[in-house]
């Protein structure tokens, strides 16, 4: 019997990583469909060309926290109504109290509310759908180059305590755990579990040192005034960084390494991105 899997955000970092991990399983019984903003974009076309068996469907995605929460709850309700067996939701790590702490960050709060809706609906009498909640920490892709890397590095340098260890995860590793949860729903490791994800834990100074050793340059930064101006306009940035300080991180990196020995450290992630 075919194993049908539906992946939202198919051309995004996380959705695309889940699709790659699913096809890497080389299981002909798995049929993958993806939802994306626009199936005609170059990224969507590249994905379709690489995986001819993939079916892509276009749909608009929520632009803000309020609509993210509404769409997330609607997806959960629709999944239950249509007999979906397992629902894997990626949200965000919010520290050791992630189960009860929505934080002060609006796009963290919306994900917290989606989690609670998923847990409540799957626990209702008659529900046959199980869930896995994956909570990524800071994306290593934030240090992949461009203005966002400069902004993130500068904000971390200026705002975080020097001794604060930031947990980080590569998008491909989120995809690996997503594929495992989708294809092994009866595994106690995943069934009705919430798992924070990280492959490394580093201070800002360690991030800079490793980047220098691997790439020959420090992580690029920008002027502090630029970061300050962006923070005034986009208040989520300073609030997110403050959440790192106040709420911390909760991924059990050693246990995650035991489950997936291929998990990437920041160094390995950088080395994999270097031109051959």
TrEMBL record:
SUPFAM superfamilies: NAD(P)-binding Rossmann-fold domains (SSF51735). Keywords: NADP. Residues 65-227 form the NmrA-like domain. InterPro entries: NAD(P)-bd_dom_sf (IPR036291), NmrA-like (IPR008030), NmrA-like_oxidored (IPR051164). The keyword Lyase does not apply. One of its GO terms (cellular component) is nucleus. Pfam families: NmrA (PF05368). Gene3D superfamilies: NAD(P)-binding Rossmann-like Domain. Belongs to the NmrA-type oxidoreductase family. This is NmrA-like domain-containing protein.
